[in-house]
Amino acid sequence: MLGKIRDGEVDIFKFSVDFVNTKIKDASELFSAIEKAGMRFAYRDRGFENTMLSINQDATDEALRKVFRDLRFRKAIAHLIDRGRLVKEALAGFGVPQDTFISPFSPYFDRQANARFDFSIERAKNLLDELGLKDTNGDGIRELPNGKPLQIELLITETNEARVNTAKIIAPIFAEAGINLVTATAPGQQVSQRINKRPPEYQFLIISILGSAISPEDFFAFYHSTGPFHFYKFSDAAGKDVPHYQKRVDEILVQLTIERDEAKRRALAVEFQKLTSENLPVIWLFSPGFYLVAKPNIGNTSALTTLDAAASLGLLEVLWLRSSF
Q1: 199 cis-preceded (ω within 30 degrees of 0)
Q2: By the 8 A CB rule, do 252 and 61 touch?
Q3: What is the rounded CA–CA span in Å between residue 119 and residue 83?
Q4: Which stretches within the chain are classed as H helix?
Q5: Where are the domains of the chain?
Q6: What is the largest CA-CA distance in the chain?
Q7: Could you give the 3-state DSSP secondary structure of residue 65?
Q8: Per-residue pLDDT tens over the stretch 38-53
Q9: Class (C level, CATH) for 49-288
Q10: For residues 15 and 21, is the Cβ–Cβ distance under 8 A?
Q11: Is the whole-model pTM more than 0.85?
């Protein structure tokens, strides 16, 4: 593709930066070729990958499991995430911060419904103190109620550059808050096997779910208690120790599959966003970028303003060729 761009043989094309097949070096070279060719971006925003930090609330370690299920702990972790820095440094700018699963392009998106946890190490420390997780021996690492150090394993795919970089950035931040975050890298297939076990064999996990997330039911398989990808707390499916908010989330997801009144659907979607953002079943991080590039003589590219539109070049009837420009 690089050669064709440099030779002027490409009029319009789309690509994503997944940090596995297309890494930072590849994306940098591609962007340079685009600029030199005089092409322009019709779309440059979030892609189909929705990357999160998942906290396993079914962790096999009993002390950690109890802590992970406490909302104050998940809030503390949320305050330790600097999304802007992750996009700038871990993704080298090839992506956008993400603090909710539902797309801003969605008619159901409501920014006011989304709880925010701004980056603040001090707030995180206060919440951890409130939980009774304190450094009693002065070694810089907090202790669990059983006296063991607050050490957490972060599982990531070894070939994903963005996730490897993210782990390197957040580990020192967690250490400043008194949490020893230890990164464990593994091949993608092994990560999948560990996730799909009952209970899953991970403590913290950075992973992506694919989808444009126009409506909450797009992630039914993830957020519903019985969903096959409900890996942050598979035990919800058994109906034991299911949080109140999760029960309501289940109800909303089922209602959305049958509700056709748009006003009611929007109200349900807003309630869903509020519940999931306030209770933090997972912590959203970023979305690797998706791009649509065209020559200046391709007109009406401004119509391709959403991810779904930019990704559907089958809709080329909206475009036209300028005879002069």
Answers
A1: yes
A2: no
A3: 8
A4: 2-6, 24-36, 62-68, 71-79, 83-85, 121-130, 161-176, 188-195, 220-223, 244-258, 262-279, 307-311
A5: 2-47+289-318, 49-288
A6: 75
A7: helix
A8: 999 988 999 999 999 9
A9: alpha beta
A10: no
A11: yes
Cα torsion 301, 307, 310, 315: sign: negative
The residue type found at 174 is F
Query: pLDDT by residue (tens digit) across 102-115?
Result: 888 888 999 999 99
CB count, 10 Å around CB of 168? 12
Q: Which two tokens stand for residue 51?
A: 């990357």
- CA-nearest of 45, 32, 123 to 77 is 123
The residue with tokens 């070939």 is 159
- In the numeric block, the tokens 């009952």 are attached to 198
Contact 50, 98 (CB under 8 A): yes
Q: Which among 131, 120, 132, 136 is positioned nearest to 177, based on CA atoms?
A: 120
Nearest to 170 by CA among 280, 262, 51: 51
| Residue 257, CB-side half-sphere exposure with 13 Å CA sphere | 11
**Environment class of 284 (CB within 10 Å of its CB; exposed 0-12, middle 13-18, buried 19+):** buried
Q: Would you mind telling me the total number of residues written for the chain in this entry? A: 325
